[in-house]
Amino acid sequence: MKISIIVSLFLMFAIDLVAFDGLKNQNEFDKAYEYYNKGKFKEAHDIWSKLCDNKDAQSCTNLGFIFDNDDLGYKKDEKKAMSLYKKACDLNDTLGCKNLAISQYKGGKSSKDDLAQALKNFEKACELGDGYSCTSAGFQYENAQGVTQSLNKAYEYYEKGCKLLNAMGCTNVGGMYANGFSVKRDFTKAIEYFKKGCELGHKQGCKYEKELSGDDFLKNHIKNRRDKWIE
């Protein structure tokens, strides 16, 4: 039986919903967000630009998001977007670090240096509490992307992602137990994590939980213990 348990990264940028510092900033930030939701992107841009100049990290992230898209009133400019994400990340904005890492990962699939920078920023976003980034860091360690492969680090980050309620992180912890990667093979724990991934909305987790929980699984698996749960 061959089942792929490590899934590819789902790369999606995010926008911040709250300002970083002060009631005045929050009021201005909220006004910009209202403009953004109404499709008044220039007005949102102008407010976030002013707040970003005053080191409001979340405004820098949202300004970067505007330039990371070609349908938000401005010409897409990935270089400018990354510069704004970096400024936000340097100011410890979680989504700024996450979006910067995603940009670096997307642009660095053939560049070890870019992938290494992506990992660095995924790790920082993870430490700041973003479960998706924890799982993404684990994926890079699992697959030796910009870093020497480390199944121990992969497990560590997948576990962190799962604790932060990232569904893919839970599914991948289940995969580590199913394969015996970095941990002793344990199908009971694998099912537990696949189930949690499923409950959090990851379809692969549902699929693997069902397959491991089948009546004939253990009997059939014992006949061929060398099978790996990965393609």
TrEMBL record:
Q: Which UniProt keywords apply?
A: Antibiotic resistance, Disulfide bond, Hydrolase, Repeat, TPR repeat
SUPFAM superfamilies in alphabetical order: HCP-like
Per its record, what are the GO molecular function terms? beta-lactamase activity
Q: Please state the Enzyme Commission number of this protein.
A: 3.5.2.6
Q: Which InterPro entries match?
A: HcpB-like, Sel1-like, TPR-like_helical_dom_sf
| Catalytic activity annotation | a beta-lactam + H2O = a substituted beta-amino acid
On whether Hydrolase is a keyword of this UniProt record, the answer is yes
Name the SMART domains for this protein: SEL1
> What is any one GO biological process for this UniProt entry?
response to antibiotic
Record has Metal-binding as a keyword: no
Q: Which family does it belong to?
A: Belongs to the hcp beta-lactamase family.
Q: Output this protein's name.
A: beta-lactamase
Native organism: Campylobacter sputorum subsp. sputorum
Lineage, top ranks: Bacteria, Pseudomonadati, Campylobacterota, Epsilonproteobacteria, Campylobacterales
Corresponding gene? hcpC_1
